[in-house]
Amino acid sequence: MTERQVLRIHCHLDDQGYDPELYERLIELLHDFTPRTQALPPADADCDVTGALRYFRTGPYGLAQLIRMRALALYGVATTIGSGPNRMLAAMAADATPPGEVTHLGPEPEAIAAFLRPRPVGALYGVGPAVATLLVRHGLHTVGAVADTPVGTLQRLLGRVQGRRLHERAHGLDDRPVTPLEPARSLGAEHSFAHDELDPHRHREAVLALSEHLGIRLRAEHRVARRLTLTVRYADRSTTSRGRALPEPTGHGPALTRAGYDLYASLGLQRARVRGIGLRAEELRPDAYATVQLSLDPADDRARRIESSADRARARFGETAVRPATLARR
User: Fold this and answer.
1) C-alpha to C-alpha distance for 167 and 189, rounded to whole angstroms
2) 69, 40 in Cβ contact below 8 A?
3) φ, ψ of residue 208 in degrees (nearest 5)
4) pTM above threshold 0.70
5) I need a surface site. Which of 100, 108, 232, 329 has the fewest CB within 10 A?
């Protein structure tokens, strides 16, 4: 039986300004290698290349190098690629890889153990800051220490399901399939800070600017979004994403901003060194099919009329002709 092989591809789109259309072209490029490609916006993708290796007559490392060279030659985009026998290991290999290079992790149990065991528990897929703190508090500093802990002990710490799942992942097990779905039609934008930004007020200003930009684009294209996703990129190149369905499909700037602020607040960032923030409007549909809930608030009706007038001014004089006062002061 052929060993499963998965690639995690991280596209360095921020190096030239984030472009969602460029990301979609890169996903199309990956489909040239395997139809089993799962887009992971805003800049990643997983590819199950198990069946593609024989076609291209190469191994996982060689195929990853071919993908890297084509992305660079055709689109000028550098990629960092991790290869492994499942999605978790491929993603962790990519996270441990220097920018623009390839790391291949073989399927041998000895190779997987040598890679996983020395790593801090926070590097294990699915272990967030709260779980990592709990594990460290109980003396479990590394993935190897977690792997050596009886599953019953982990279940008493984390609950039955999470404890067993953590035990399996500490041994390199992950049965999640690569789901070959096309990326949902969406609009995205990203703000990159000139330096690592710790000020939450500047973070919120970026969310406001991105919400305004997406709202303007949606209304100009007569579309509304059903879902919003916020991605925060940190100084160490790691990212955190939060998404949620909107109460109603909308392109209304204040509604997008409120949702963006809520997503940012849900991250609970404390003195985080933020390199960039991205916002994506997803599950788009024509605005003719949108339903707006009735409101008894005259302020909301007034805001929509003002927004419509501002859009007409922007159409004539440019997007920056009318801006929120907070952004105008900046």
Assistant:
1) 38
2) no
3) -60, -45
4) no
5) 329
